[in-house]
Amino acid sequence: MPDNQDPQSGQPQPDPERDGRLDPESAAQDQSYSEGYDAALDPYAAEDGPQPAAVLPAPVEPAPVIPAPPPPPPKEEKKDEEEDEEEGMLRMSFLEHLEELRSRIIKALLGLGVAFAFCVFFTNEIWKAVMAPAASALKTLNLPETLAQLSPTEAFSIIWIKMPVLVALFLASPWVLYQVWAFIAPGLYKRERRLAVPFIFSTAALFILGGAFAYFVAFRFALTFLLGIGVDIGVRPMISMTEYVDLFVNVILGIAVVFELPVLIFFLTLLRVASPRFLLAHSRYAILLIVLLAAIITPTPDIYNLIIFAAPMIMLYFVGVFASYLLVLKREGEKFPWRKVLVVGLIVLALAAALLWILMVRYNLHWVWRWPFLVR
User: CA 364, 366, 370, 372: dihedral to nearest 10 degrees?
Assistant: First the structure.
């Protein structure tokens, strides 16, 4: 008997699996089994009830790539930087400027007074140093190494006042120059205020270097020439302290101030008043003015002493032009080839040393501190 045949009636029974239908009891069991299986897979399904069929998300298209905006032109950046620097500038009224000037002058004079008080303790040594060029020139001419005092107060005013003040001016020059810089710094940009240390150091160094050049070279040569003019024809020089000291101060201070020429050229370039191209194009006029200035400072009318005074000034002019060129390169974002220049300079110095050695060894020449410097 087939399994699906009714034993009483002999009629075949419907097969639920074959017909694709289930009886109510089996359908209930199957539904319960299905819900239990889904609950086992998803623990939150039993709590939330039957879940809807999963819906696949629509494909997401990639977002378009937006290119970065181009950088602003360098002129605008430079303009913004200048505006930021201008905001940092100190604004003062006319009366405030006068008050600031008064304060800086007082501070500079106080520093000069401290240096003067220090120099007073060394008046004898200072006077011996001031007297040394005259003593050397008089000794060379076989004359008495003395100066004449023409009034009772002459020695006191010169030895105890004028000479200590002159030396104190050189000692206090960094402090005085710092006060000058502090007065003009509020009106400068931030990048220009960073030049404080180079400005003070270079200006003071050039001022002291100019005084040293005048003392050891220019004044000694000029004095020897002046005192020896009439010795061969019976003229005996009688030099007073006042005349000697006035000439000494004029030469020392005049050359010391002229040695500030590179600093002046640098600041003219910094303020955009001059440029290296302009300075080189008009260098012949600058040389003419330097020679005229040297003729005014030089105490003698001869060409020899004029060259001694003018040659360093012309060299300093071109040093200032070079400093101006370096400033323009830095302003334009370029660099100077220091390494190549150093190599070339060392080669030139080596060749000059080799030539000097050959002249001294092969031709029996020796060095002396007067023209032509190399003699037999």
Answer: 30
Q: Are residues 331 and 343 in the same domain?
A: no
Alpha helices in the chain (DSSP H): 16-19, 24-41, 45-48, 74-87, 94-120, 123-140, 154-157, 163-171, 173-184, 190-193, 196-213, 219-227, 241-258, 261-270, 276-281, 283-297, 303-331, 338-362
Do 234 and 343 belong to one domain?
no
Cα-based distances in Å from 173 to 106, 130, 207, 255, 305: 15, 19, 8, 15, 28
Q: Can you tell me the distance from the alpha carbon of 80 to that of 86, in angstroms, rounded to the nearest whole number? A: 10
Residues 15-60 pLDDT 10s? 544 444 445 555 555 555 455 545 444 544 444 455 555 555 556 5
> Who's near 170: CB < 8 A, 6+ residues apart?
207, 208, 211, 256
Do 374 and 227 share a structural domain? no
What are 76-85's pLDDT values in tens digits? 444 545 555 5
DSSP code, position 162: I
Burial class (CB in 10 A: 0-12, 13-18, 19+), 267: buried
Residues 106 and 238 in one domain: yes
CB of 4 within 8 A of CB of 12?
yes
Q: Which residue has the higher pLDDT, 115 or 142?
A: 115
Q: Does the CA dihedral 291-294-300-306 come out positive or negative?
A: negative
Say whether pTM exceeds 0.70: no
**Which amino acid is located at 95 in the chain?**
L
DSSP-derived letter for residue 346 is H
Predicted pLDDT of residue 115: 93
Same domain, 247 and 174: yes
3-state secondary structure of 273: coil
Of 225, 256, 287, the one marking the end of a domain is 256
35 occurs within a structural domain: no
The domain in which residue 368 lies consists of 339-376
- CA distance linking residue 84 with residue 134, whole number of Å: 58
